[in-house]
Specification:
Number of domains: 3
Order of helices and strands: HHEEEEEHEHEHEHEHEHHHHEHEEEE
Number of helices: 12
Structural class: alpha/beta
CATH architecture of the largest domain: 3-Layer(aba) Sandwich
Strand content: 15-25%
Largest sheet: 5 strands, mixed, barrel
Number of strands: 15
Distance between the termini: 199 Å
CATH class of the largest domain: Alpha Beta
CATH superfamily of the largest domain: Succinyl-CoA synthetase domains
CATH topology of the largest domain: Rossmann fold
Strand order of the largest sheet: 1-2-3-5-4
């Protein structure tokens, strides 16, 4: 008996350990759900309305503080569609449906009763918006600047749940540069008390000594009610008072919360946020090349100035200066010598010219031609023309001098005066 029971027990365990197929799981869930009371009333806030052209005319989410369920209205109940408005608080008669092909639970709305066109969340949103506006939380002047390349970054998000961190991590793998430090603070961003935890986390990060360049507050997409944490005044005030620049990436690109309006900068999605606040690897390499080129240019400029200073110092060296002065002196001496030689030659030519003129006008030259002149005993030349004109006595003795001889002559007025021809004190 015991031997026969072992194979039976083993078969049971194998069946229990055998994996379920998706179809089998879907069928079992369908059996469980249809066994429940599938028609009931449910109340909540309308979010994420979308129209359709198929048999199902309208999709929307019905939400409360922490949960959301997908609903639809078909053509059979098209009269109920005008009652569905965004943020409206409704009570609806629904039929629980399970779509086996999608393994998805959805509620078919058959009747709608509007409890309030404006939900309490919308009223709270408007009140907080007015308060933030009055206190200047939205003022652009209060915004802190966000650097293009941040080295110390803090990411405030739900690390353990959601896909935000996974999306950001993929961006970081492709773009983040070395020496970039990323801190991750795990914080609830969707529960009932998330606003308290989130505001305290922002305050705590500001009190640390991490020297952060930027703080990124992120959350994935969801219904409007699930983003209500980011519409609370408590979180808005914490963001406004932060000394660290804060950027936000909350929900989808079409979602805008009050925190987005208060933050220094907001991005459509966490992935876009990550791409903008981290140091891009390619950009970092390009900046490195630019800095390297600038450094090279600065080095060349410095080397040029250094060579210029060396040349200046070389010129200021006493030995070099003395050598230059000695060379100048030699040049001056050479120029002076050349000037003196030229002056001497010029003067010699002038002297020769003067000598030639003197020789031409010299009495010796006339005497050499056979002429002579008369003079008294003292050697003074006698001008007979003046003597005769003034009727003075002719001095005696009178000497006749030629080039080589001297004669004593006597002049008597025996010859008529008109026969005496005088020319240049010479008797003819």
């Amino acid at each position: 008996m015991i031997g026969n029971e072992k194979p039976h027990t083993q078969n049971i365990q194998e069946k229990q350990n055998a994996p379920l197929t998706v179809k089998l799981l879907s069928n079992k869930l369908h059996e469980k759900i249809i066994s429940l009371d599938s028609v009931f009333y449910i109340s909540g806030t309308v979010e994420n309305i979308s129209l359709s052209n198929s048999f199902i005319q309208l999709y929307f989410n019905l939400t409360d503080e922490s949960a959301s369920v997908r609903c639809y209205i078909s053509k059979l109940n098209v009269s109920q569609i005008p009652l569905i408005k965004h943020h409206a608080q409704i009570k609806a008669l629904v039929n629980l449906k399970f779509w086996k092909n999608k393994t998805n639970i959805i509620l078919e709305v058959t009747k709608v009763c509007v409890e309030s066109d404006t939900s309490s969340k919308k009223e709270s949103y408007e009140a907080n918006h007015a308060k933030c506006l009055q206190l200047g939380f939205f003022d652009p002047i209060q915004k802190k600047s966000i650097k293009a390349n941040n080295k110390n970054i803090c990411l405030l998000t739900s690390y353990s749940s959601g896909t935000v961190w996974k999306d950001i991590k993929e961006v970081l793998k492709q773009n983040i540069a070395q020496n970039t430090i990323l801190y991750i603070v795990d914080c609830s961003v969707g529960s009932n008390n998330a606003h308290t935890e989130l505001s305290k986390a922002i305050e705590w990060i500001n009190n640390t000594n991490l020297n952060l360049d930027v703080l990124a507050v992120t959350r994935g997409g969801g219904s409007g009610s699930s983003l209500n944490t980011f519409n609370t005044f408590q979180v808005c005030e914490a963001v406004f008072k932060s000394k660290i620049p804060i950027v936000t990436a909350i929900g989808h690109q079409n979602d805008t919360t009050l925190v987005d309006l208060v933050a220094d900068k907001t991005y459509g999605t966490p992935s876009i946020c990550a791409q903008n606040i981290i140091t891009d690897k390619d950009q970092f390499i390009e900046q490195y090349k630019n800095h390297k080129n600038k450094l090279k240019a600065a080095k060349q400029q410095f080397q040029s100035k250094l060579d210029q200073y060396k040349h200046t110092l070389k010129n200021l060296d006493p030995k070099v200066r003395l050598s230059e002065l000695k060379l100048k002196q030699q040049n001056y001496v050479h120029q002076l010598k050349q000037t003196l030689i030229h002056l001497r030659e010029k003067t010699a030519i002038k002297i020769d010219n003067y000598y030639e003129k003197i020789n031409l006008s010299s009495h010796k030259r006339i005497l050499n031609q056979g002429y002579g002149y008369i003079c008294d005993s003292d050697g003074e030349v006698i001008n007979l023309d003046n003597i005769l004109k003034t009727n003075k006595d002719i001095p005696k003795p009178i000497y006749l001098k030629t080039e080589s001889n001297s004669f004593i002559i006597s002049i008597e007025p025996v010859v008529p005066q008109d026969k005496i021809f005088l020319k240049n004190n010479t008797i003819y």
